[in-house]
Amino acid sequence: MPEVTSSVDPAADLSWPLRDQDLAAGFCFTLVQGLTPNQVLEQLGGTELERVAWQQLVGPGNGEVDASRRFFVGLARLGDWTVIVEDNGGLGVTRDIVRPLSAGRSVLAYRSDDTRRGRLLVLRDEQVLLDFDSRNPERWGGDRPGEFVPAMRDAGLIGGTDVTEPTGPALAFLADRTGIQLTRQVLVERTYLLVTVPKQ
Q1: pTM for this prediction
Q2: 53-60 contacts: CB < 8 A, separation 24 or more?
Q3: In CA terms, which of 99, 118, 131, 166 is 20 to 30 Å from 159?
Q4: What does the alpha-carbon distance between residue 181 and residue 5 come to, in Å, rounded to a whole number?
Q5: Do 75 and 22 meet the contact criterion of CB atoms below 8 Å apart?
Q6: What is d(CA 152, CA 156) in angstroms, rounded to the nearest whole number?
Q7: How distant, in Å, are the alpha carbons of 57, 66, 162 from that of 48?
Q8: What's the Cα-to-Cα distance from 116 to each of 83, 175, 194, rounded to whole Å?
Q9: Taking a C-beta distance cutoff of 8 angstroms, is the pair 178, 108 a contact?
Q10: What span, in angstroms and rounded, lies between the C-alpha atoms of 92 and 100?
Q11: What confidence score (pLDDT) does residue 3 get?
């Protein structure tokens, strides 16, 4: 398996999804601490389909059927974290699904839609600590949102910066909190467990 660098490189390109045609309709990246992909699959109550490469996961013609009732996601290991990759999905920002997944650990998710609006969630021990929507950058929810203000400001999500394209700042925020930089190279090099998860 390719190595994952846990030290944050300030020069890393974290805005790459904005230029990736396969992610133009939107995407969601979720990081789950301390669980393997198989453990995440079990906790989500999902069904394993196959192992796929990046292009099979996000490219056109993936054969999704009944998407109104199921999420289609890819799971891969990144250091001490499992990344959940969704091509225009929203499992990672569905509170009822990810809240139980955060029991005893941290879960962080970022979703971008086709308008480039972003939503950022941070959960720990089944609490939603931060729920940030870039459409309302000065108003956000969660049980302890103030805890994240310095990191959000450092990443460029708040504090007078242009948040109309928050993807780069949001992925920088995730990197700061997890040590995992979701660069294109890191994600493209993985092999993913493709699974379906029922929508609740």
Answers
A1: 0.91
A2: 53/191, 53/192, 54/187, 54/188, 54/189, 54/190, 54/192, 55/22, 56/194, 57/85, 57/87, 57/192, 57/194, 58/22, 58/23, 58/27, 58/85, 58/87, 59/22, 60/22
A3: 99
A4: 8
A5: no
A6: 6
A7: 13, 16, 40
A8: 21, 20, 25
A9: yes
A10: 12
A11: 47
Does residue 45 contact residue 198 with C-beta atoms inside 8 Å? Answer: yes
Is 32 within 8 Å of 99 (Cβ atoms)? no
Handedness of CA 190, 79, 197, 48 (dihedral sign): positive
Task: Give the C-alpha separation, 14 to 66, whole Å.
Answer: 32
Burial class of residue 53, CB neighbours in 10 A (0-12, 13-18, 19+): middle
Residue with tokens 């109309």: 164
Scan for tokens 């995407």, then name that residue.
27
Q: What is the torsional sign of CA 141, 145, 146, 150?
A: negative
Domain ranges of the chain: 16-198
Distance CA 58, CA 66 (A): 17
Beta strand extents in the chain (DSSP E only): 26-33, 47-53, 70-78, 81-87, 106-113, 118-124, 127-133, 140-141, 191-198
pLDDT tens column, 97-142: 999 999 999 999 999 988 888 999 999 999 999 999 888 766 788 9
